[in-house]
Amino acid sequence: MHSKRKIFKMPPRKPIYEGKAKQLFEGPEPGTLIQHFKDDATAFNNVKKGIINGKGVLNNRISEYLMLRLHEMSIPTHFIRTLNMREQLIKSVQIVPLEIIVRNVAAGSFAKRFGVAEGKPLGHPLIEYCYKNDVLGDPFVTEEHIFAFGWATPQEMDEIRMYAFRINDFLSGLFMGIGIRLVDFKLEFGRLQENEREQIILADEISPDNCRLWDMKTGRKLDKDRFRQDLGQIEDAYREVARRLGVMPQDGDSSYVIEVNAKTPKAQKKKPAAKKKKKK
Ligand code: ADP
Ligand code: AIR
Ligand code: ASP
Q: How far is CA 171 from CA 1, 125, 234, 255, in A?
């Protein structure tokens, strides 16, 4: 069966940017980009580096799913469509150079900064901003810095804050439904120029790379903290998130996520796996 499968050769495309976890290529139409998810993992601003096998495939699917659900909730996003296992077509935006961090529970750098135990619920969700700059180590900033440096306008920040809290409400509920606590996450927004109008839209990705996700029963970490803290079973944690969201195409088949470069458009189309599941 496999021997008959045609090898699909990607036409050369213009690389635009190579980041730590993703690559951007020129898209097929003006105003579009191809976002390619890599298996590369970094932490602590590139100090720690590694590979998480199959991560790119899983993050592509997880981010696609979450962006589509957010779109249904009238949150504008950059996602257009999935192209293949590791790539999606997105709208090209001018990224607002900020990491928007929303926290529901103390963890990570927040727990350290304020000397509180990881896991302490916060009185209400809170938002923090970091200036996106690897050389400076993404320093925390306030709106005062943002306006003084002109990284975003007060109107844009109002919109970003409103979207970030709405995203938090929606995703917290969505993850709760699959037994996962949304502890915190990082978002990026961009400016989209369309019909002589500028709009703020959600960009980048939402995945276990930039969310803290804890199993509600056991407290098990199902995100990049397993890599940051050398907890092991990293791939398994990412797969678990995908499985619970219902976006693992072939349940239990780990080769699916590892054999990523063998993907073809045909392979994407044939998947009776989802149908089988429904029958039960
Ligand atoms: P980093 O740049 O921090 O290493 P990644 O490896 O995730 O991060 O690279 C993806 C890059 O693409 C990020 O810099 C992100 O800001 C940028 N980006 C994400 N979505 C868009 C978009 N729709 N248009 C333009 N740039 C984007
Ligand atoms: N994050 C921040 N910079 C990069 C990423 N991925 C995410 C983390 C975590 C949240 O932002 O994955 O979900 C807060 O991170 P920290 O380290 O500030 O506690
Ligand atoms: N994303 C940042 C890095 O790649 C920070 C982190 O995730 O810990 O280093």
A: 41, 13, 22, 29
Q: Cβ–Cβ contacts within 10 Å for residue 119, how many?
A: 13
**Residues enclosing ligand 2, CB less than 6 A?**
99, 101, 107-110, 184-186, 209-212, 224
Question: Domain 94-234's class?
Answer: alpha beta
Please work out whether the CB of residue 207 comes within 6 Å of at least one atom of ligand 3: no
Interatomic CA distance for residues 251 and 182, integer angstroms? 23
Taking the C-alpha atoms of residue 276 and residue 137, their distance in angstroms, rounded to an integer, is: 47
Q: Phi first, then psi: what are they for 199, rounded to 5°?
A: -135, 145
Residues pairing with 84 in the sheet: 87
Measured CA to CA, the distance from residue 30 to residue 11 in angstroms comes to 17
Question: What pLDDT, in 10s, does the model give residues 64-113?
Answer: 999 999 999 999 999 999 999 999 999 999 999 999 999 999 999 999 99
**What is the per-residue pLDDT across 118-133, written as a single tens digit (0 to 9) for each?**
999 999 999 999 999 9
Q: Where in the chain is the domain with CATH 3.30.200.20?
A: 15-91
If DSSP codes are grouped into helix, strand and coil, which group holds residue 186? strand
Query: May I ask the CATH class of domain 15-91?
Result: alpha beta
Residue 20 CB–ligand 3 contact under 6 Å:
yes
Placement of tokens 């990607």 in the chain: 10
